[in-house]
Amino acid sequence: MKSGFIAMVGRPNVGKSTLTNKLVKEKVAIVSNKAGTTRDQIKGIFTKGDSQYIFVDTPGIHKPKHLLGEHMTDVAIRTLKEVEVILFILDGTQEISTGDMFVMEKILEAKGTPRIAVINKIDLLSDDEIENKKKEIKEKLGEFDRIITLSAEYGIGTEKVLKVLENYLVEGVMYYPEDMYTDMPIYKIISEIVREKILIKTKDEIPHSVAIEIINVTRRNKGKDKYEINIYVERNSQKGIIIGKNGKLLKEIGTEARKDIEELLGKEIYLNLWVKVKEKWRKKKPFLKELGYFINEE
Ligand SMILES: Nc1nc2c(ncn2[C@@H]2O[C@H](COP(=O)(O)OP(=O)(O)OP(=O)(O)O)[C@@H](O)[C@H]2O)c(=O)[nH]1
Questions:
Q1: Which of 59, 111, 149, 240 has the fewest C-beta atoms lying within 10 Å of its C-beta?
Q2: Where in this protein does the record put region G4 (predicted)?
Q3: Phi, psi at residue 115, to the nearest 5°?
Q4: Which residues line ligand 1 (CB under 6 A)?
Q5: Strand intervals (E) in the chain
Q6: Which atom of ligand 1 is nearest to the CA of 20?
Q7: How far is the CA of 59 from the centre of ligand 1 (A)?
Q8: Nearest to 23 by CA among 138, 130, 155
């Protein structure tokens, strides 16, 4: 029996969550085209035969601008020290930036942890561009145990990753039951589903200003369970945007989220969404704690 923890790190929006979902073959992490989608450490678990891979999807590492950002970067950095191997994921369509170098600095702080560079989004690159990217990695970031090229979105080259990673698994226990694919509690998955629908349907500053809280669940022996969920935003104008004209957007968000939640739970539910304004919530530690951020803090 072999198992191992694998950190998925990289700048925001490079495709860490997409790759985690592809490797686990289940939707573990929500995905959107907005940077900063993942806020917490999420574990995606994949067990095949006697090998168990535990992918630790982290929030994108970046220089923090607010308390929530600080929490996100801290979570990612702590992860690097606790794993068997680090996958540093890069968006192959972007030039290597100071942001990537900042990530590399953090990887080097986790001395001794093997590291693999992953060039993602090769569906958008020519062969020459891929070769140049490999050179650029060596020049700007330094040496890796190896460089892997793939497209997480289209599943090109993703099976090869499992083969490579098998070499880093260690003999011993299985940490999770075979059929478990995430360690996220069900209420968190439900909140994340609602947040994903909002991220997909809004733009500009809204995505970063949204927090979700399940305020009540009414279980019924007969009839459907009822979920009441608050959507917090930072300003009145944002509330208006999420609700939309005559409540249209909120209704769409609700319908799409409800369908996904019903699929997850295997039963029909009622879903009530409320939009509330909580000024500057990202800077308020007690409120962040209420939402479950910083709970692992010592
Ligand atoms: N063309 C292409 N797009 C991709 C690929 N992988 C991911 N994407 C897109 O890139 C965007 C970001 O993907 P995510 O998986 O959310 O990125 P992330 O690194 O987890 O982002 P954060 O949560 O912000 O840290 C999404 O719009 C994906 O659909 C790929 O292989 N090819």
A1: 111
A2: 120-123
A3: -135, 140
A4: 10, 12-18, 31-33, 35-38, 59-60, 120-121, 123-124, 151-153
A5: 2-9, 42-48, 51-57, 85-91, 115-120, 146-149, 170-171, 211-218, 225-233, 269-277
A6: 15
A7: 12
A8: 155
Express each pLDDT in 40-90 by its tens digit: 667 899 999 999 999 988 766 666 666 666 776 777 777 788 899 999 999
Domains belonging to the chain, first-starting first, are 2-171 (3.40.50.300), 186-290 (3.30.300.20)
pLDDT at 289: 72
Question: Is the model's pTM score more than 0.80?
Answer: no
The sign of the CA dihedral 25, 40, 184, 204 is negative
pLDDT per position as a tens digit, 95-143:
999 989 988 988 888 888 999 999 999 999 999 999 999 999 999 999 9
What tens digit of pLDDT does each residue of 180-208 get?
Answer: 888 888 888 899 899 989 988 887 667 67
Query: Which residue's CA is the closest to the ligand 1 atom numbered 13?
Result: 15
How far from each other are the two terminal CA atoms of the chain, in whole angstroms? 33
Q: For residue 295, how far is the Cα from the chain centroid?
A: 18
Pairing of strands 269-277, 115-120: unpaired
Task: Tell me the CA–centroid distance for residue 33 and ligand 1, in Å.
Answer: 6
- Phi and psi based region of residue 49 (left: phi greater than 0; alpha: psi -120 to 50; beta: remaining): left
Distance 19 CA to ligand 1 centre (A): 8
Q: How far is the CA of 100 from the centre of ligand 1 (A)?
A: 16
CA 236 vs CA 84, 125, 195, 209: distances in Å: 46, 42, 18, 12
Ligand 1 pocket mutation, candidates 19, 28, 30, 31, criterion most atoms within 8 A of CB: 31
- How many angstroms does the Cα of residue 152 sit away from the middle of ligand 1? 8
Nearest-angstrom CA–CA distance, 152 and 179: 23
